[in-house]
Sequence to fold (289 residues):
Amino acid sequence: MRSAPLKLPAIVRTVHDLREAVSDWRREGKRIALVPTMGALHEGHLSLVELALTRCDKVIVSIFVNPTQFAPHEDFDAYPRHEQVDVEKLAKVGVHLIFAPDAEEMYGQDFSTAVEVSGVSDGLCGETRPHFFRGVATVVTKLLLQSLPNIAVFGEKDFQQLHVIRRLVSDLNIPVEILSGAIVREKDGLAISSRNQYLSPIERTIAANLNRIVLDICERIAKGETISSALAQGCQALLQAGFDRVDYLELRNSETLAPMTSLNAPAHLLAAAWIGKTRLIDNRQVCPQ
Ligand code: AMP
Fold:
């Protein structure tokens, strides 16, 4: 027997159409979740959708490769875009609506506003990608105000980004609950990322060491090794494993993201490193033993 054809979710491309769909749901008393993405969807994104579905009646996924979070030398043009494949994946997990605006719809002419979050945006990715969090904070603020969901879901893979979003939602009194989903990993531990597809087979083998080394340094710090020496050895190990450059390997307070010199509060080890032209990030919680 042939299986029924997959029912694809509706795609809206304008804020007007998005708001119409959302207001119909609101009238029906539905709870609504938003999962913002840049497309090239993988298991990590889909896990956020599944989390959203456990908490809400209707799930919207936005797909928008946001130009303002890329610097001119970064991979905006090369960023993978496979809308049809994404739509089918979202249909399979039961998404109700896809919001896929173009840059003109999001920014139009004379767009002049930016959301800047100080403190948690500083250092880490904010240092090596100075344009990045301003672009993310602005687009996420817009997406939240465009869709006004009850819940928005973000991945812990982008741990600093999650802090930036929680901060702006609190500071700007945006009435939304922010939920986070755990990092989904490949079998060898590599955090799944849309950018992993840039890696050659050799680079892919090297990439698996990021998780391995982050885990090892977490364990050493948890056992009481001096943080500065563990971090220095971690950087060394990444370069020896074949990474070309380490942007950062740092221990930060899990709640405030403040740098830590001793393990006196819940902490996360955060890393960003380059293999060839690909920049990978990862993080792990450090559990004192
Ligand atoms: P992106 O499309 O890369 O902007 O990511 C969209 C959302 O998916 C962000 O909230 C990311 O943190 C999240 N995400 C990306 N990769 C993963 C992963 N491997 N596991 C869990 N969440 C992820």
Remarks:
- Residues 218 and 286 are 5 Å apart (CA to CA).
